[in-house]
Amino acid sequence: MSELASTAAIGTPLARIEGRDKVTGAARYAVEYDADRVAYGWIVQATIARGTITAVDAGSALVQRGVLAVLTHENAPRTKPVDDPELGALQSPKVRYRGQIVALVVAESLEAAREAATQVRLDYDEEPHDVVLRADDPELYAPDGVNGGYPTDSGRGDVEAALAAAAVTVRNTYETPGLHNNAMEPHATLAEWQGDHLLLYDSNQGAPTARDTVAQVFGLAPERVRVVNRHVGGGFGSKGTPRPQIVLAAMGALVTGRPVKLAITRQQMFAFIGYRTPTIQDVALGAEADGRLTAIAHDAISQSSRAREFTEQTAVATRVMYAAPNRRTTHRLARLDVPTPSWMRAPGECPGMFALESAMDELAIAAGVDPVELRIGNEPEQDPEKDIPFSSRGLVACLREGAQRFGWEGRDPAPGVRRDGRWLVGTGVAASTYPVYRAPAQATARAEHGGTFTVRIGASDIGTGARTALTQIAADALGVPAQRVTLELGDSALPKAGVAGGSMGTASWGSAVVRACEGLRSKIDLEHGGEVPADGVEALGDTAAEIAAQEEYSRHAFGAQFVEARVDPETGEVRVARMLGVFAAGRIINPQTARSQLIGGMTMGLSMALLEEGIMDPHFGDYVNHDVAQYHVAANADVPVIEAGWIDEVDEHLNPMGSKGIGEIGIVGAAAAVANAVHHACGVRVRALPIRLDKVLEALAAR
User: Residue 127 catalytic?
Assistant: First the structure.
């Protein structure tokens, strides 16, 4: 293949390969696949927040026309224990939170299953419950570690002494509410037993991972389970691990002997698929008179369920952001009668950076330093806590570029003095960061005699454009036009790859694709004289060894977010007029799909700042606004002109492509930039999200 020149597919705005299939309906999602004699499942949920099921009466449901089975803890197939207790559905009479799955109805039609579900009667022995996160919870404790494998606490120097001696000090509490994943495609599964093998079409972020977990649940060898997820309508972290519907669908299919489709409703998605935990964060900053930090303290509290420990890594980003000789970060956890929280786009970094970047804005005001210059002036020479070099760190370049593009120069720092008609107008800035991860993966690359190539990998495209980006990576590694490459993914039968999560999909899978293509080219040249034999040739790429031998650097993407906000002082209404994000994320594989990911994250950050809020009723024991009619997310009218760009960043310490993940960094810092702009507009600092109009009016009245 030595005669083939590089086509430089990487860096071109190639349209999504599957785009036509999606807009024409040819792309099939989990429950859109066909199956003979298919049946349908419907979930019954607990109506108490804590207690025990004492009696089950499924008689009325079973006599309904078309009903095939009603499964409860009394008759459901027994499963093996796994780390996630949600996958042990219908194994115990214990109820740990309101909305927990307590029964499954399987029927000939979806309508019959739904109707029969209303006829299932359960009696409970109800116990007192506690569902509200409080900073004074007497049972708060320090977990052994936090999500991502990070240590619970970190520190150096004497933070309290440095704060006491600081010329300028900021110390405040910031809060974020429970936030809920609302992917366009709900969690859904079609399960079919084929003899002693289980076939699952499922909406998830990693088919091989789902396959291994389901095999463990049912005590099967992994090769007896196949999971297919060729198209996934979003996940945002909630589909990173298997959710209960995949196990329930398999149970229903096992009991009835028929394929079973089970799709979670929008309302049920607020119960047992995970969510972002609410947080209570204390941030204290001490600085010299010129704004140079002498102390940083970030203490975070979050919640988990009584069934399982999950600790959001809320304060971890603070460990890498700014230079200061005295430092402390801590995480404390409350175990409540609630569902277990899980991953939601940029877990940890997203809520944590809201607090830190809001505090940095308050420090800039207190010290009389421009917010952009404050951040630049506290730029560390190396990782402040690990004492190792950054592989690359483009924060200052993003701040400079963003300020120039946004028109930051000459900004009057005084709040509440600019008007445009009835609106008070202000601007704000915040930094963004997200770590660079890479997980081991395998891929195969095959050349056919006719000049076409097929690359296979068990990756997942959850709407991010992964299929297209990997095709571009393969094309360049092979030195052929992208049109000659077919990329197969979304199937656990393909070479094993990790989940689409942690902004590491492209880096992890792309590395394996490059190695497979390099191996293929070498094989063709060395073993076949540069010619593809009639029966084709194939090579395997495996990155486990090279990742294990990777040099130690602090690897992160960075960015800067700029926002113009408008506040009506009479009504408290807040509108964001424009947003700009500039990012340093290594080599950009596809500018078109990259921009889509970045503005998507920024939009979610805007939504988090102004709209999203899970409202917990302490007596009812559940979120009262568990649908998208009452849980508000940004719609078209809420989203202004959003611009996302990036700087050219070369980093040789990452992966063969030199890329960093972009799926999550767009949401990090966005909410803080909005809050900072709101303060600049009207002089009101809202430290508990979302920035509702009633909070603005109350603060204006108090001022």
Answer: no
